[in-house]
Amino acid sequence: MIDTAMLMAAGLGKRMRPLTATRPKPLVKVAGKPLMDHALDRLETGGVRKVVVNVHYLADTVEAHLKARRCGMEFTVSDERAQLLETGGGLMKAKPLLGDQPFFCVNSDNFWVDGPAETFAMMRRVWDPARMDALLLLVPQARAYCHSGMGDFRMDADGRLTRRREGHVAPFVYIGIQILSPALLVDPPSDVFSTNIFWNRAIAAGRLYGVSHQGLWFDVGTPAAIPVVESTLAYG
Q1: Which UniProt keywords apply (predicted)?
Q2: The dihedral of CA 169, 170, 173, 178: what is its sign?
Q3: How many angstroms separate the Cα of 173 from the Cα of each of 49, 59, 76, 211?
């Protein structure tokens, strides 16, 4: 049972300006509550009991919000106040806090609605540590709402992932939710680097897998995305 998660909440939120001039992006409200709380509510419903949250921009505000939240989860802060470490560096810094078992990693700037199956239960069912170092939740390009780009990955019949080829469109977009094995988090190239380094290693070993999300997903990275999410939820 995977019951630990990391919530990535340290980013500067530049694309969300001016809303992030006075608050961190995880505390920007969508549909009546902060983005962070949407993610934490789903993690709690999904059976996660321990959450490591990395902080940098307006870190005191994020910490105060976590302390005020009443729930059955245990929170631990991975402090990046001194230096923003990007996604890979943030994972490496938090690794001692995450334990030695596979864990969920969730971005705080996305918004999803479950399909027929609860997201985290579905990912646990697919996860196979004998074959996988990472399992990424993907959505077909046509259902990546508020997202621009040419896609991220191709996925074969077994779920194994490869990168989009240059000059081509890939059918799947990564939507900021994954399961990671701690065994993948080794040999960092520097203090500051992207999770792409770990994914590339897993691809080379044939151990990066994906699963397609069957519900709704929104890339809530800019202020313009917020009314799209809210109107979709209100009117379907």
Answers
A1: Nucleotidyltransferase, Transferase
A2: negative
A3: 28, 29, 29, 11
Would you state the pLDDT for residue 232? Answer: 84
pLDDT digit string, tens, across residues 36-48: 999 999 999 999 9
**236 pLDDT above the threshold of 70:** no
Residue 193: CB atoms within 10 A of its CB come to 18
User: What distance in Å separates the CA atoms of residue 48 and residue 50, rounded to the nearest whole number?
Assistant: 6
Cis peptide before 18 (omega within 30 of 0): yes
How far apart, in Å, are the Cα atoms of 177 and each of 5, 83, 85, 215?
Answer: 10, 24, 19, 13
CA gap 33, 231 in Å, rounded: 15
Q: Give CA separation, 15 vs 56, 60, 145, in Å.
A: 16, 21, 16
d(CA 224, CA 74): 33
Q: Is the pTM of this model over 0.90?
A: yes
Which parts of 45-131 are beta strand (E)? 50-55, 74-79, 103-107, 110-113
Report yes or no: 59 and 142 within 8 Å, Cβ to Cβ. no
**Does residue 189 register a pLDDT over 80?**
yes
